[in-house]
Amino acid sequence: MQQIEDDSSEQPAMIEEQTGQSRSMQQVQVPDHDIFTVIDSLSEGVFVIDNEWRYTYVNRGAEELVGRSREELLGKNVWKLFPEAIDTVIYRESMKAVQEQQSRQFEVFYPALNKWFESKIYPTHEGLTVFSRDITDRKDAEAELARYAAIVTSSEDAIVSKTLNGIITSWNSAAERMFGYRAEEAIGQPITLIIPPELLEEEVDIIGKLRQGIPIQHYETVRLRKDGTRVNVSLSISPVKDSAGNIMGAAKIARDISERLELERRKDEFISIASHELKTPITTLKGFIQLLLRKFERQGMPEALPTLTRMEAQVNRLTRLIDELLDASKIHAGRLDYEEEPVDLAALLRETVELLQATSSTHTLMARGTRQAWIMGDKDRLGQALTNLITNAIKYSPQANKVDLSIFASNKTVTLRVRDYGIGIPKAHQKDIFDRFYRAPGGLKTFSGLGMGLYITHEIVKRHGGEITMESEEGKGSTFVVSLPVKKN
Ligand code: ADP
Question: How far is residue 392's CA from residue 447's CA, in Å, rounded to a whole number?
Fold first, then answer.
């Protein structure tokens, strides 16, 4: 303690010398011990070192900084206490400060303490005064930022940020390559720079969602390049928040999907051509089977009939599969045609049930509900949707013996339900069930199929302005509900 008090009597002079404030301090006549209370309460570490490199004063901040008490530090030689420092910039800068009698400022990582320091060294007549701060948190944050910056820079995807007013605030190299604008050209400009005029509404929707904090995932759209050409992109957009959680803007990742779309287009084209090519021989085959059926019937050879009938059923199945493939590729290319005529869905349901009941010996199809339910639409397509739902209900309930069907019409909507008591669909797969080629993993081996029926059904219902939903419990069964708007002539 004695030593600290001794030191205190000398320190103000040193501080005053350095800061050049001795006059003003004397004018307000702050007593010495008060100044030391102030210095002690500084968050910075203050070390006073004499000409023999011994600590003559340290404040509380200094103790915390080096993790040693005053008693351990005072009177000790700096380099003996911290020999590791001799190999660092601390030693070099201290020597320089003494030799050149000039203050020095530097940042240093001190491995022994695993800390980053920012230090200022002031030479004095008696030695040195050192002010040090722990800047480890700032350095860690900077390193993290640098890591993110490296990821953003090297990303193959365009990464762009913008304010909530749609002003571009950052633009990475991939964005430069994808859209043709350099960062200097894009930053500060409105994001509408890269939005095609006919899609400007999209941005309003996007901003609306972001203001509510809703992220946007894999949104496929088109953007405009500097040279006026267009690029197909998949956008993922997340709100950017400040530390208080307020939404400040958005970070947008754009992936160029032109290549993928081109591949899909070629795949669809291939499926479409292949289906057409397959259809011709199958139709011919079916014609010949029917010819033979009639011939054998006429010639009184009934023993051949069951085989031929089975052959016909299989050919019909093949035709259905090929038609589905064709439909799925047409839907994907946006080329499925629809008729628009008044259709009585209740009558269509009865017809479909009758037809399917004839081919199912395992299940009873029980239909109930309104006698008439008129909507505007395409009878064949709606029949196809009903057939898909009912055949699925039969196919995916091998242990059950019935399927319940109901139809109800209100002034506005016709609601149709198909309920089975089968294997059901696990929760995790329910959201994907209407996707093209999607099949829930559970029944893949047991049940044959291509995963197109529900995709086509969903599309047909959507094109009629309706909605299809599903409730299902694994092992208990599924209910598919179709609601279609009643449109008057
Ligand atoms: P597919 O039956 O040819 O596989 P769908 O598109 O008709 O194709 O159906 C997609 C998937 O949805 C099926 O593979 C099956 O996993 C599931 N699924 C459809 N309907 C039912 C149902 N009624 N019960 C259980 N699973 C079903």
Answer: 10
Please tell me the chain's helix, strand, coil percentages from 3-state DSSP, rounded to the nearest 5. Answer: 50, 25, 25
422 lines ligand 1 (CB under 6 A): yes
Residue 418: partners with Cβ closer than 8 Å, 6 or more residues away: 389, 390, 393, 403, 404, 405, 479, 480, 482
Determine if ligand 1 sits within 6 Å of the CB of residue 454: yes
> What residue ranges in 379-466 does DSSP mark as E strands?
402-409, 413-420
Ligand 1 atom nearest residue 442's Cα: 16
**Over 50: is that where the pLDDT of 24 sits?**
no
Residue that is written with structure tokens 């944050």 in the block: 141
Kindly list the distances between the CA atom of residue 324 and the CA atoms of 60, 381, 384, 465, in Å, as whole numbers in the listed order. Answer: 80, 12, 10, 21
Q: Considering only CA atoms, which residue is closest to atom 16 of ligand 1?
A: 440
For residue 23, is pLDDT > 80?
no
pLDDT at residue 32, as a whole number: 65
Distance in angstroms (rounded) separating the CA atoms of residues 487 and 464:
10
For residue 103, the one-letter residue type is S
Minimal-distance CA residue to ligand 1 atom 20 = 392
